[in-house]
Structure formats: structure tokens, C-alpha cells
Amino acid sequence: MRTVGVEEELLLVDPDSGEPKALAAAALARAEQDDTSVEVFEKELYDQMLEFATRPQSGMAELRAEIGRCRREAARHARDTGCAVAALATSPLPVGPSFAVGRRYRWMAEQYGVSTRLVCGCHVHVSVDGDEEGVAVVDRVRPWLPVLTALSANSPFWQGRDTAYNSYRSQVWSRWPSAGPVEVFGSVQAYRRQVADMVATGTVLDEAMVYYDVRLSARYPTVEFRVADVCLDADGAVLLAMLARALVETAAREWQEGRGPAPHTVSLLRLASWRAARSGLTGELLHPVTLRPVPARDAVEALLEHVGAALADSGDLETARASSASLLREGNGAQVQRRLYGETDSLREVVAECVRRTLV
């Protein structure tokens, strides 16, 4: 069974005003004093964000428990510094980014300017048996990634306004020069050559700053999915992990059987990604096979059918279907936030309720 690890970026907010607070350094210092947290939390670009990474897990129940534990620990360390954590992919209230200390982060802020805006994502790592299998997976999962964006969409507000997007984080993130969908590579050599060429331009510092939607991890023997908003609740993150692992397993089987990747162009994949960010689960998505508009429900069903055998083999099929049905019925994080705003007419109250839901 392939292992899965999840990285989540949580927003640090004032528990009263709901505004982001630049206290990541203080929260990390608290975590370093706690033996149970020392390897969980990581420094990130923004000082208003606290990131954690789970250990690799093969069972989804264990992964769910660890995500919950990490969120609770993050909340405890934040509380000790006078703030709270919220699983929000953008701040509903106005904010300017505050950058963490360090030469690398200073270079990024100076180089990329206005593109370095505060957003919080969820990254899923799935184990692969070497780079050859990893590149084969990267080539074959490309059309299905926008559906993951739609399922996880949790960023409708930006600088105090409704953006009309479900995942505005995706639009902010797409401004980074190395982010987005990629062409079919066909071999490890082609993948490595392109990464080396990108670094050689001086536009990125190293391989870790090549932010493809899905990539070989520079640190672990994994394929890393980078298209999702941080999910409002932990069950959403687990669904992403289930689907990502099933996509990897399905793609690896196709490669082993000699079945090639879909020949979709980067231009069309960008349109599919934009549509997923705009519509989420509330409108139409581009079908991953035909790249023609279909109701979001149909695109989600197509994904579940595509990875159905892999989900069944891992024992996740029933849970994945139930979780997907719940999202389609109750709404993703973006729909929840808009519903809360409609009930309260207060973005501060939206943040307060999302703080509570982060720990459910």
C-alpha cells in the first residue's frame, strides 16, 4: 500500500478581530519546546502562517487522526502566543503579507513582488517506486487535478470582498512563474533537464522552487500534489489524500500496462484549472477526458470512476464516495464561508466559525 503524507498551511488570526497575525516565529518557538511537535511544524514564507506535515501513513483512519492531532497542536501553540489557527486558504479580512526572516524568503519577496501574497494550501505526498514511476505518474494525472481544486476550494474572499471565485488562492498562486500545469515529459531525463533549465534561468533559486501542479518531491521519494486549497475540515484533507493516492496507483498501473498519458495541451489544462477555481462545485467543470463543460457532479463522478479500482483495492472506495457526496450536498469550504457570511453579514464571524470548524 502506498503511503501518504499531508502538509497543511494554517492561517494565524486574532481570536477577536479575525485579522491575520504575524506570530509564526513565536508559535514555532513554542513548538520547539514541545517534544511532540519538534518535527511537525515548519517555517514558511509568511509569518502569518503555521505549516505542519504529517508522517507518512498507509491507513486513512490513522492519517485522519494525525491531521486532527496536528491541527490541535497548532491551535495550542497559537493560543500560547495570543492567536488562533484557521484552515482558510485566503484571509477574508484585509491583510498585507508579513515575511519570515531569512535570506531565501527575502529574495523571494524582492524578486516576485506583488505575487507574494498570503495564501494557504494543502500539499499531498504519495510514495512512488523511483523517479521513473514518478514521472510516469506526473504525466498521467494532469487532467484530473482541477477536480481536486474544485473539491478543496476554500478561498472565496480577498481583501474584504467576495471575489466570485471558489478558489481565489489558485488565481493568486498562478502568478508565480514556475507554478501551474506542465506538458508530458515522457522520461526522467526530460523532467530533470527542464528543471535544470528552469534553475539555470535564475528565475528560481533551486529545484524546490519549481512549483508544478504535481511534481517529484525534492526531499522525499514521493509525487507531490500542489493544487488544493487548505480544506476547512480535516475530512476534506483526508478525501484529497485518498484521491491523490488512487490517482497515483491508477497512473502507475496504466504505465505498467503500456497505456500512454492523455495528450491534453498545457493551454487547455490551464483553462480547466481556471474553471475549477472559478466554479468549484457550484457550476460547470471541464471533463478531464473530453475537456468540455459538464456539471461539477459529473466531473467528480468521472474521477471516482477513473480511480475506482485503486480505491477499492485500498479499502477507500466507500469512504471516498460518501465524502464526495457530502461535499456535493453540503458544499466545500468556499460555499460554507459564503453561507456563513449570508447569515451573519460579518467576515469577522466567518473567521470565528472557521476557527471552530478547523478543530472539529
Automatic annotation (TrEMBL):
Pfam families membership: GCS2 (PF04107)
Entry superkingdom: Bacteria
Catalysed reactions, semicolon-separated: L-cysteine + L-glutamate + ATP = gamma-L-glutamyl-L-cysteine + ADP + phosphate + H(+)
Listed SUPFAM superfamilies: Glutamine synthetase/guanido kinase
Family: Belongs to the glutamate--cysteine ligase type 2 family. YbdK subfamily.
HAMAP family: Glu_cys_ligase_2
Role this protein plays: ATP-dependent carboxylate-amine ligase which exhibits weak glutamate--cysteine ligase activity.
Protein name per the record: Putative glutamate--cysteine ligase 2
Organism: Streptomyces thermocoprophilus
